[in-house]
Structure formats: C-alpha cells, structure tokens
Amino acid sequence: MALALLGGGCGKTDEDRAKSAVKEYLSALEERDWQTACDLLVTPGAGCAKPSPLSQADIRSALPKLLGARIEKVSVHGGGGVVRGAAGAWSLAKEADGWKITRPLLAPRGDEPAAPAEQTDTGSGDPTKFAGEAARAFDDGRAKAKRLRPARRKDLTDEEQRALGATSPFLQAQETLPIRQPPLPVQQYIVQERSHVITARPDLGDFLCRLRTPAARLAAVRAFYLEADAVFRSYGVRRWQLVVAPYSNSTSDIEPLARASSGSVVLTPFGRGNPSDC
Question: Residue 180 — left, alpha, or beta (φ > 0 → left; ψ -120 to 50 → alpha)?
Fold first, then answer.
C-alpha cells in the first residue's frame, strides 16, 4: 500500500492535519531530527531528543517501507484519531497547537501478522458475479477485523479507547470493511464518525475503465453497499452514508462518483462518465 501523506496548507480537514502530523514525524526521523520528532509526541518523556528507544538501524530498515506505504484508513473521533496503513498505525490527539502522536509506531505491532504485499484484486468485472464477490470480500474483512482487533487494543486504557472511538459501534463496524477486493476495490477509507459518512476511494481507472458501463458501476456500488449496510446494521447502526470517490493524495475537495444511503444507490454525473483514455 502506499502512504499518501500530506504536507501543510490551508483549507485542510482534521483528517489532512492528522496525516500531516504523521508525515512530519516520519520525515524528522528520516533526517535524524530527534527534537522535531519529540515535539510531535503528546508525551515526549525524558531524553526523548535522543534516538532511544529506536536504534538508527531500526529506523533505516523501517523508514523506506513506511514512507512508501499507502494509508488505508483515516479516522477522526472528536479529539482523537487513527492513521492506519499496512506498515503500521499511529494514534493521535488534537492538542491546542495541532495534532500530536500518542502512540508512534515504526512498524506493525509484534503481535499483528505482517501485511501482505500490496495487490488489488479487480475481480471478474461481470455484474452477475458482483454479489458473490462482495459477500466473499466482507467475509474476509470480518475475519481480519476479528483477528486484529484484540492485538490493536489490548494495551489501551479505557480512556484511550474512548478517545479513539474504539467503543463506538460505527467505528467498530467500519473496521470490517474490505480493502482492494472486488467488486469495488477500495484503496482507502475516510471515516467521519460524527456524521456517519464512509468515503470509499477506489482508483479512478479501476472504477471508470474496468467497469466500463454506468450499469456495471452501479451494480458494483450496490453490491458493496448492501453488504456494508448489513454489517452496520449488525452493530446497531441504521443511518449512515456511503460516498464513493476516486483515490488521491488529498482528503479535501473530493468529487463523488456515487452515493448510497437508506437503501438508495446513485451514480453522479462524474461516475456515469465515459473517459476516452481507458
């Protein structure tokens, strides 16, 4: 996966700023700028300006993977947030002077299985098979969440779990959403807990070119939405909205391809387009 982390700038969302904090932290480590890295931590601790407890060998081996890994999910819940990708996860808190990292991870936790190599399964492209593909993708997502959830949370305090939304049924449900699997191979999710909006972001080419007709695109989104809706309802969440938008390096100024809520699924004019370069 690729880590599409953003730098600073105006007009940024909390999701952008949380991602920017992670990028700045990693860049500081790469440049051996320990003080800047420490300044991005909520509780730096004594002696933080030294490279301990991370050896330079650890950093050299971990950074290439981290700096080239795509973020899968960005979740902001009030004053807390999580930026998560295949290379690891960072929990953050919104402080008076900006987003700060509460748990800096340079690699996946030792008790989590290593992430597989990045691959996108675009599936058959056959609308008659989309329902079955979606069912298998969500079965896999539920199994993965069940396996990883205890390891991710076992050392969090109750206060930290509340700050990160770990006790929210909506956020628990979104942890089961599949990544890079048909019929809608999503590369990244943007999760808005307060408004119960999930933005699913496939590569534009996978959506407009692999699914060549509006009917096929609509069928893919509908199959995905119906499975997702069943998951959210199983967690007691009945009101939520799915937005499908192309993956990019920014989480702002998103132009939707499709929307779904309350059992209705529609393509936008952008989602119905026929690009000439497919």
Answer: left
